[in-house]
TrEMBL record:
Entry GO terms, CC: cell outer membrane; transporter complex
Name assigned to this protein: LPS-assembly protein LptD central domain-containing protein
InterPro entries named among the record's database cross-references: LptD (IPR050218), LptD_2 (IPR045659)
Residue ranges of domain LPS-assembly protein LptD central in the record: 212-699
Keywords: Signal
Coiled-coil intervals: none
Signal peptide: 1-25
Pfam families cross-referenced by the UniProt entry: LptD_2
C-alpha cells in the first residue's frame, strides 16, 4: 500500500508539471490581438442598412487594411448617432486578420470596444458562443469577450482553446496595456471537452514575454479538488518542447518478481525529435534500460530508434537453478515521404539483438506470445534511385538471424542495377502492328553482394570478418512473345548469365585407413569469371467451361477456368575441365581421385572451383527439361435477394488457384520426373477460408538389408507408382485456415484506417496529434477499438510429412484463438490463447480489461499461467485524437499527452 500511495503522489506532481509543456499557449491567445483603430470618417447616414447575410464595408474608407467587414443573418442595427453597430444572429466581423463569429456582436466606434456573446435558447441552453481566430493562429471559443482596439486591453470569460495538444478552459483572462496577461480560475487539461474530466486548476497567473508566474495550483478530477498542489510555480517560456518524468507501471512477474516498469525521463529536444530514457527494476534482481527517440520532418521523413539492454537473474543465488543473462536489442525504423525527393528513396527497418532477448525479457515486457515464440530476426537498410528511362539502382545492407541456431548472416552491401526491357528493333515512329522481330525484348540486370554467415558469438572477431564472400552477377534476357492460333500464348528466349568471383577454391584429398577420404580446402584470392547461357520457350492458354442449373434452388451455375502451361528449357554442360569452372580432384601424392558414375564406370572426380562463392558457379551436366503446370479456379453462382448490383446473383469462389506442377529432365540419367507439388485455397464463406499444399512422389521404393548392420532400409526405385497401378505417394501435406465470427470487425478496421488517413490529409492537427496518429498507422493492431463491439477469431495449422520413401512420418498442428467484447460502451475485455497439441496443454494465455475514460486509459493485463506469468495495471492520459477515435493503446504505450 505504501508503494501505491507513493506512485499516486508522484503522478500527481508530474501532472502539475505538465503546465510547463503548454505554458506558451498564453502568448497566443488570439482574443488579445489588437486591430488598428479606424481613423477614417464614418458614414452616419441612418438609411445605411445591410441586407441579411450581406457583407458591408464603409464606402468612405480609403485604406483596405483599416476596413471593418461585418455581416449578420438575422439583422443589423445602428445607434442614433451611428457610432455603435449591433449584429444579431450568426454575426461575423473581420478586421485586420481577426475573424469573430458569435450570436451577438457590437462595435462602438467612439470607445473602440468590440463585445461578443452568445444567447440562451428556448430550452435554456447557451448557444452561439463567440468563436474567434487571428491570422496564423488556432480557433478559440468563449462565453463572452470584450476588448479595446486602441489600448490593447481586453477581457475574455470562460475560454476554451487548444494550444499545442492541450486545452485551456473556464475562468477569466485579462490583457493589460503593457502586454501582460492576467489569468484567474482557468483549468489546463489534455481532455478535449469544454468541461474537462480532469485538469490542473490555475487559481491565479501572470504571463509575461519570457515567463509565467502562477499559484496556487492544484489537481482537479471530475470537478473535485484534490489536496495535491503547489503554493506557487514559476515557469520559463522556451519556444520548444518541455521535458518531464515518466512514471513506472507497477506489477508482478512470475519469474522476476514485483516490478516497476518503464519509468524514466522524457526529453523534449525540439519540434523535430525527442527522446525517452526509461528503465525497469524487478525484486528478484533483474533490471533493464531503454533509450528511445522519435524524429520527424514534415513532408520529408519520419522514424524512431530504440536501444534496449536487459540484465535478468533467475532462481536463487547459490543454487543449481540460478542463472543470469545479458541481452540487448536494437530497433530502427525510417521511412521517407514519396514526394520528398521523387526518384530517390531511403528506408530502414532494423531488428537485431541477442538471440535470447525475447525469451528472457518476455518480449521487452510486452508479454506478446507471437514475439516470444519467433526464431528469426531481420533487418534492411535500403537506398534506391531511378534514373532516366526507368533504370533503377538499389543498394541495401541486410541482416538475418536465427535465434535457435544462433547464426547470423550479414550482407554489406547488396547492390542491384536493373534496366527495363526494351525493343531494340522497334521504331518509336512505327505505324501499324509490330512485325515479329520488333517484338523482341532485351533487358539487363546486375547484382553485387558482400556477405558472411557465422555464429553470433564469433561474428565480429577478426578471423571471421576476413571470410566475407563477394561477387557480381550479370543477367541479359532476350525474349519474344506472340499469339499462336489466336488462343495460345507462346514465348521463347535466350538468357546469358555471367558471374564475377574474387576468390576460388582448391581441394586436396587424403586417404584415411579403414575410413572415408577427407579433403582440405584452400581459398585462392583473385578475380575469376564464369558464364553460361540457356534457351527457353513456353506456351499457355485458358480453357473455360460453365454448367447451368435450373432445378437446384438458389444454385444456378458452376464455372471452371483451367490454365495449362508447358515450358521447355535447355542448359549446356559447362562443367567440362577445358572451360575452367571445374577441376579434377587429386590426393596429396598426386594420384587422381576416382568415383563411380550411374553406369558403374570409374571416372575422375570433379569439383567446382566456385563452390561456396557468393553466387556459385555453373551446374554440372546438361539439362533439358520440360516443365508443366495446371491451375484451376472454380466459382459457383447463387441467387442473392440482398444483392444491390442489380443482377440478384452472388459469386462464391469454391477453389482459387488449385494448381499442380512438375518437370521432366530429358537428359537426366535417372529419376527424370521431379516430385509433383500442389497448392490451392478456398474461400467457402466470408468467415472461413482455407489454404492447402502438398507434395507427391511418383517413384516406387524397395527394401534392402544392410549386410554390415543387418538392418532393413528403404531406397527409391527408378520406376513410377502407376506402373503398379498405384497413385503417387503423398510425402507432405498441410493446410491452415482462419475463421472469424464477426467479419464486420475487419470492415470496421478498414473504415477506421480510412478515417485516420482522411484526418491526416485534411491537416490542421498539432504535431502531437500527428505523432499519435502516426503511431496508430504504424501498428493498428496495438490499439483497442471500442467502435467494434465484439470479435472472435481462431486459426489452425496442420502439417504431415515423411521422407521420400515414406519413413519417419511427423505431424505438427497448432491452434490459436483470440477475441474481444464490449461489456458496456466503455468496458472491453480481450483475450488470446491456444492449444499446444504436443504438450497437450493450453499455450500462453493473455487476458486484459480496458476502460475507456475518454481522456484517460485504464487497463489490467494478466498472464495467468506459464513461465511468463504476470499482471499489471496501467492508468494513462490519452491523446485527444485517440479520444475522438475511441482507441486505447495496449500494454507498453507511452504518450506525453
Amino acid at each position: 500500500m505504501k508503494l501505491l500511495r507513493y506512485i499516486i503522489f508522484i503522478k500527481a506532481l508530474v501532472l502539475l508539471t505538465f503546465v510547463s509543456n503548454h505554458a506558451l499557449a498564453f502568448t497566443t491567445f488570439s482574443t488579445f490581438q489588437v486591430v488598428r483603430q479606424d481613423t477614417t470618417k464614418k458614414d452616419t447616414t441612418k438609411n445605411d442598412q445591410l441586407k441579411k447575410g450581406a457583407l458591408k464595408s464603409n464606402p468612405q474608407d480609403t485604406s483596405a487594411s483599416e476596413k471593418i467587414q461585418y455581416a449578420a443573418k438575422d439583422s443589423i442595427a445602428f445607434s442614433k448617432d451611428s457610432s455603435i453597430v449591433y449584429l444579431y444572429g450568426k454575426a461575423r466581423v473581420m478586421y485586420q486578420g481577426l475573424e469573430l463569429d458569435a450570436d451577438y456582436i457590437s462595435y462602438n466606434n467612439k470607445t473602440n470596444i468590440i463585445y461578443a456573446r452568445g444567447r440562451t435558447d428556448a430550452k435554456g441552453k447557451y448557444v452561439g458562443r463567440p468563436i474567434f481566430k487571428m491570422e496564423g493562429q488556432g480557433t478559440s471559443m468563449a462565453d463572452s469577450l470584450r476588448f479595446n482596439t486602441v489600448t490593447k486591453a481586453g477581457n475574455i470569460y470562460e475560454v476554451f482553446t487548444e494550444q499545442e495538444g492541450g486545452f485551456f478552459s473556464g475562468g477569466k483572462a485579462k490583457k493589460q496595456p503593457d502586454d501582460e496577461i492576467h489569468s484567474k480560475g482557468q483549468t489546463f487539461s489534455t481532455c478535449n471537452l469544454p468541461h474537462p474530466h480532469f485538469g490542473i486548476h490555475i487559481t491565479k497567473g501572470i504571463v509575461t514575454e519570457n515567463q509565467i508566474i502562477a499559484g496556487p495550483l492544484y489537481l482537479k478530477i471530475e470537478d473535485v479538488p484534490l489536496p495535491l498542489g503547489l503554493p506557487f510555480a514559476f515557469f520559463p517560456k522556451p519556444n520548444k518542447k518541455s521535458s518531464g518524468i515518466i512514471l513506472p507501471t507497477p506489477g508482478e512477474d512470475y519469474s522476476r518478481g514485483f516490478f516497476l516498469q518503464d519509468g524514466g525521463y522524457y526529453l523534449g529536444l525540439s519540434d523535430y525529435w525527442d527522446a525517452r530514457l526509461t528503465g525497469s527494476i524487478y525484486s528478484y534482481g533483474s533490471y533493464s534500460a531503454r533509450a528511445a527517440s522519435t524524429y520527424t520532418k514534415r513532408y520529408k521523413f519520419n522514424g524512431n530508434v530504440n536501444l534496449d539492454y536487459a540484465y535478468n537473474q533467475f532462481g536463487t543465488e547459490g543454487t543449481s537453478d540460478f542463472r543470469t543473462s545479458k541481452d540487448f536489442r536494437i530497433n530502427w525504423s525510417h521511412s521517407q515521404n514519396p514526394n520528398a525527393k521523387p526518384g530517390t528513396t531511403f528506408s530502414a527497418s532494423v531488428d537485431a539483438g541477442t538471440s535470447s532477448y525475447d525469451r528472457e525479457t518476455a518480449a521487452g515486457g510486452t508479454y506478446d506470445p507471437n514475439q516470444i515464440a519467433r526464431n528469426t530476426l531481420g533487418s534492411s537498410i535500403a537506398y534506391s534511385r531511378t534514373f532516366g528511362k526507368g533504370i533503377n539502382l538499389t543498394s541495401a545492407l541486410r541482416h538475418s538471424q536465427e535465434t535457435q541456431t544462433k547464426s547470423v548472416s550479414l550482407t554489406l552491401p547488396d547492390v542491384t542495377l536493373s534496366v527495363p526491357t526494351f525493343n531494340p528493333f522497334d521504331s518509336p515512329n512505327r505505324v501499324g502492328e509490330q512485325k515479329w522481330y520488333q517484338k523482341i525484348t532485351v533487358g539487363y540486370s546486375m547484382q553485387a553482394t558482400n556477405s558472411i554467415t557465422a555464429g553470433d558469438s564469433v561474428l565480429f572477431k577478426r578471423e571471421t570478418l576476413s571470410k566475407f564472400r563477394s561477387g557480381f552477377q550479370h543477367n541479359i534476357p532476350i525474349n519474344m512473345a506472340f499469339n499462336v492460333l489466336k488462343y495460345f500464348n507462346f514465348n521463347t528466349g535466350v538468357s546469358y548469365l555471367e558471374r564475377w568471383h574474387f576468390q576460388t577454391i582448391r581441394k586436396t584429398y587424403a586417404k584415411v585407413p579403414n575410413g572415408s577420404d577427407v579433403f582440405f580446402t584452400d581459398t585462392i584470392p583473385g578475380f575469376n569469371r564464369s558464364g553460361q547461357y540457356s534457351v527457353s520457350g513456353g506456351v499457355s492458354t485458358k480453357i473455360y467451361s460453365t454448367a447451368q442449373f435450373k432445378n437446384f434452388g438458389k444454385f444456378k451455375a458452376l464455372r471452371h477456368v483451367m490454365t495449362p502451361s508447358v515450358n521447355f528449357g535447355y542448359t549446356p554442360d559447362f562443367s567440362d575441365i577445358s572451360k575452367g569452372n571445374y577441376k579434377e580432384a587429386f590426393y596429396q601424392n598426386g594420384d587422381p581421385v576416382m568415383t563411380t558414375n550411374f553406369k558403374g564406370e570409374r571416372v575422375p572426380l570433379k569439383y567446382s572451383i566456385h563452390e561456396g562463392s557468393a553466387y556459385g558457379g555453373p551446374g554440372e551436366g546438361r539439362n533439358a527439361s520440360i516443365g508443366f503446370s495446371i491451375d484451376n479456379t472454380v466459382e459457383a453462382k447463387f441467387l442473392n435477394p440482398k444483392d444491390t448490383t442489380g443482377t440478384g446473383e452472388k459469386k462464391i469462389p469454391i477453389i482459387q488457384g488449385l494448381g499442380i506442377s512438375g518437370s521432366y529432365n530429358l537428359l537426366a540419367e535417372s529419376f527424370k520426373l521431379s516430385t509433383l507439388s500442389f497448392s490451392g485455397r478456398s474461400q467457402f464463406t466470408d468467415k472461413l477460408g482455407i489454404n492447402y499444399y502438398g507434395t507427391l512422389n511418383p517413384y516406387l521404393y524397395a527394401d534392402s538389408v544392410n549386410q554390415s548392420t543387418g538392418l532393413s532400409q528403404r531406397y527409391l526405385v527408378d520406376k513410377y507408382t502407376w506402373s503398379k497401378g498405384q497413385l503417387p505417394r503423398l510425402t507432405n501435406f498441410g493446410f491452415s485456415f482462419n475463421y472469424s465470427l464477426n467479419p464486420e470487425a475487419f470492415k470496421r478496421n478498414n473504415e477506421n484506417a480510412d478515417k485516420l488517413k482522411q484526418n491526416a490529409n485534411t491537416g490542421g492537427m498539432t504535431p502531437e496529434q500527428a505523432e499519435a496518429l502516426a503511431k496508430v498507422s504504424r501498428d493498428p493492431n496495438a490499439f483497442v477499438d471500442f467502435n467494434i463491439p465484439w470479435n472472435f477469431a481462431f486459426s489452425y495449422t496442420f502439417n504431415y510429412s515423411t521422407s521420400d520413401v515414406g519413413d519417419n512420418p511427423t505431424v505438427t498442428n497448432t491452434l490459436n484463438f483470440n477475441g474481444d467484447a464490449n461489456i458496456t460502451p466503455k468496458w472491453k475485455v480481450t483475450f488470446s490463447s491456444g492449444w499446444d497439441f504436443r504438450q497437450k496443454t493450453i499455450s500462453q494465455t493473455n487476458f486484459s480489461i480496458y476502460r475507456d475514460l475518454h481522456c484517460w486509459d485504464m487497463a489490467f493485463t494478466w498472464v495467468p499461467f506459464g513461465f511468463y506469468q504476470s499482471y499489471s495495471v496501467d492508468i494513462k492520459v490519452k491523446a485527444s485524437i485517440l479520444q475522438d477515435l475511441k482507441l486505447s493503446k495496449r500494454k507498453g504505450y507511452y504518450t506525453k499527452f
